[in-house]
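Thought: the user wants the 3D structure for the chain below. I'll pass the sequence to the structure tool as-is, report back what it returns, then summarize two notable features.
Action: structure_tool
Action Input:
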Amino acid sequence: MKLIIAIVQDKDSNRLSGELVKANFRATKLASTGGFLRAGNTTFMIGVDDGQIDAVMSVINKSCKVREQLVTPVTPMSGTTDSYLPLPVEVQVGGATVFVMPVDRFEHF
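Observation:
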């Protein structure tokens, strides 16, 4: 048995949740916050048998797409801010960060 932890952007959360339900996978959703953009994320915890890992990964891959987004960098931590002009920068957001971990024991009460 494995525990799949998938961290996805909030914009992909509802789509992924719906696709997991359609594919008969049960998941627990947790609200989380990303460190880089300080934007909302959703963390999914999905327990599956070893043979179901590829199917779950396929659902996650299909539901969570990478896209470009303009962000304004934060003010520099050191130095003067007199000459600092925060221009928007295009960065990639979305997609999913996924961890697959072994489960030694599972109980459902």
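Final Answer: Structure generated. The helical segments are 10-22, 53-63. The first helix runs from residue 10 to 22.
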